[in-house]
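testing teh design pipeline on a random one, pls ignore if ur not involved
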């Protein structure tokens, strides 16, 4: 088969790879994208977007629950098959739509698992590709813990495409995925066991707010077990028996491994092209360049401390567009990155953490505000609204925030704008925002 030559080959057709591919193509480079599975990658097919479609019903139910006795009289029930149909109406169009977009832009596409050869070229099925530079954007996949009965474990991929939700499910790991799937399944009527091996899930978030969130999940009926590890999963009639280190056991309809994700690198044969990896992903320098100077990496597959999120992968794709088309290549500098765990109560984190601020009391002030009596939250009867705001003592600018409320996703984005524009209450006071809204609360947060 004849070698096909490109300026750039991007391996992985997810949000990160696509951002780079479109950007580099727009700069006039000949670009190819290789995808082995679903065009569009994790986020729109089996991540953020389908999850958030299911979450729309959860949020609506939560809003209605909060207003019981305050003007509403019944709580809507989730019709799982209908909700799943709504999700599929969105996701089934993604791969063809994404591929069609690339074809329309005249970006070359190859479908199959990419694998490097020792001479630095790439094999995809029957195709042989050569390129001046390469971008690896192969993402992460669910990690399956090595327990007795690991073959019975499912993942978020299966959860987000279930025809029917079992009456009882078990989630192994209370990270982002575990907590979000617990919220969805619980709201849809399943008995949920959320099992976490340490005493401190969601370590990147404020500990008090994580505790508030777990208490809320418990109050909603989720069986949250901390310091507990599942040791065995075994078939029991048409269900599964789960056993833990503390000697407890129960029968459940399905068990999902929500114990983290791992970089997708096995197919690539990176060792053949001298690209170093760790268990966290591909090693890169400040230019997202791997240990092979012609191979770059971005997004979830990279071993970097930034959270593994779609906007981060897209930002890195745009950064590489710039770096690979100009002579000037300063190290990547990330803006403030907001993180949100979605649910009836949303947990959000932005900028300087409360832990960092507490460790440097001369530099930062942390204000812990119960928002439940504030007008914005009283109006919707939000039962848990709380924010911790971190202010720089010298500049009086807001530099960080941790939020738990049904409105956290919106508030954290306003605060992102505030932080990026170096604002405190004085600067916010110079703006006029619609009243009464979350934005009009901003000036009270110092
Ligand atoms: C359940 C879930 C919910 C999430 N929710 C959110 C959220 O609400 N907000 C948010 O910001 N992020 C969320 N994320 C994370 C988000 O999906 C990822 O950060 C994002 O998809 C990373 O993009 P990427 O391009 O780096 O990788 P991916 O989207 O994973 O794309 C990588 C692509 O590479 C392909 N590939 C792998 N190996 C090869 C190979 N050898 N050859 C060819 N192709 C290959 C894969 O098939 C895949 O399509 C969620 C993730 C999950 C699992
Ligand atoms: N809302 C969002 O933005 C969103 C949603 C989902 C995923 N994501 C992204 O995907 C990444 C992966 O999410 P995740 O939830 O899969 O991973 P995670 O690392 O956030 O959480 C997994 C948790 O499972 C625990 N764990 C590990 N082994 C275990 C075991 N044997 N038993 C019980 N617990 C165990 C880990 O200590 C960890 O706390 C996130 O870091 C995030 O970047 C983002």
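output:
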């Amino acid at each position: 088969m004849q070698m096909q030559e490109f300026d750039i080959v991007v391996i992985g057709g997810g949000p990160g790879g696509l951002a780079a591919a479109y950007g580099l193509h727009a700069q006039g480079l000949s670009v190819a994208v290789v995808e082995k599975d679903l065009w569009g990658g994790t986020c729109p097919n089996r991540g953020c977007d389908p999850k958030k479609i299911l979450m729309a019903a959860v949020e609506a139910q939560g809003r209605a629950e909060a207003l019981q006795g305050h003007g509403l009289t019944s709580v809507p029930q989730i019709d799982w098959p209908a909700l799943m149909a709504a999700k599929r109406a969105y996701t089934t169009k993604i791969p063809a739509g994404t591929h069609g977009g690339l074809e329309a832009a005249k970006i070359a596409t190859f479908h199959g698992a990419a694998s490097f050869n020792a001479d630095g070229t790439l094999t995809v099925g029957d195709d042989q590709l050569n390129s001046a530079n390469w971008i690896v954007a192969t993402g992460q996949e669910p990690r399956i813990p090595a327990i007795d009965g690991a073959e019975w474990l499912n993942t978020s991929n299966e959860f987000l495409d279930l025809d029917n939700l079992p009456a009882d499910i078990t989630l192994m790991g209370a990270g982002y995925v575990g907590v979000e799937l617990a919220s969805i399944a619980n709201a849809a009527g399943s008995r949920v066991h959320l099992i976490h091996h340490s005493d401190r899930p969601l370590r990147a978030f404020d500990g008090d707010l994580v505790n508030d969130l777990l208490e809320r999940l418990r109050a909603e009926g989720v069986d949250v077990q901390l310091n507990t590890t599942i040791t065995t999963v075994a078939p029991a009639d048409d269900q599964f028996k789960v056993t833990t280190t503390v000697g407890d056991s129960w029968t459940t309809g399905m068990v999902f491994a929500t114990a983290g994700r791992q970089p997708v690198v096995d197919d690539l044969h990176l060792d053949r092209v001298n690209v170093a990896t760790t268990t966290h992903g591909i090693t890169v320098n400040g230019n997202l360049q791997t240990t092979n100077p012609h191979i770059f990496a971005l997004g979830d597959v990279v071993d970097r401390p930034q959270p593994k999120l779609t906007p981060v992968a897209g930002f890195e794709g745009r950064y590489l567009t710039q770096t690979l088309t100009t002579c000037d290549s300063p190290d990547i500098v990330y803006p403030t990155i907001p993180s949100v765990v979605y649910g009836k109560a949303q947990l959000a984190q932005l900028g300087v953490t409360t832990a960092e601020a507490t460790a440097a009391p001369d530099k930062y002030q942390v204000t812990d505000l119960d928002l439940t009596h504030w007008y914005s939250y009283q109006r919707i009867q939000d039962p848990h609204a709380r924010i911790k705001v971190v202010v720089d003592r010298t500049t009086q600018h807001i530099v960080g925030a941790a939020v738990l409320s049904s409105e956290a996703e919106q508030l954290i984005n306003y605060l992102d704008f505030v932080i990026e524009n170096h604002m405190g209450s004085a600067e916010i006071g110079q703006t006029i925002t619609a009243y009464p809204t979350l934005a009009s609360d901003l000036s009270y947060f110092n």
